[in-house]
Amino acid sequence: MKKIISFIICIMLIFTVSVAAVGCKKDNTDGKTVIRLNEVTHSIFYAPLYVAIEKGFFEEEGLTIELTNGGGADKSMTAILSGGADIGFMGPEAAI
Q: Residue 9 has what pLDDT?
């Protein structure tokens, strides 16, 4: 049973990473990859992300992060499904 659950989790992770990578687009002006990130709310849990953006770590790797606040898990999920965001930070309730 543990092997089946581990296999399912691995498949879900592979799918999530591939969907995130496919959803990114190239910006024509400077050639950097633009990632539209929608967070459910500003939270201390996302502090490493905020620091990485402010310190320019993503820029060094050729990425531009467009960070938006969804104002709720339902709105963040809607942004992903409608193509307004590439990645959404939210709890499991939106997926369920």
A: 63
Distance CA 6, CA 35 (A): 29
SS3 (DSSP) at 37 = strand
Report the C-alpha gap between 33 and 90 in whole angstroms: 23
Residue whose C-alpha is closest to residue 41's, from 13, 62, 71, 16 = 71
**Closest residue by Cα to residue 37 from 54, 55, 50:** 50
Reported as type and span, the H/E element at residue 78 is helix 73-82
pLDDT in tens, 30-79: 678 999 999 988 889 889 999 999 999 999 999 999 999 988 888 888 89
Distances (CA, A) of 93 to 35, 39, 51: 23, 14, 27
- Token readout for 77 is 């999920």
59 to 62, 64, 84: CA distances (angstroms): 5, 6, 21
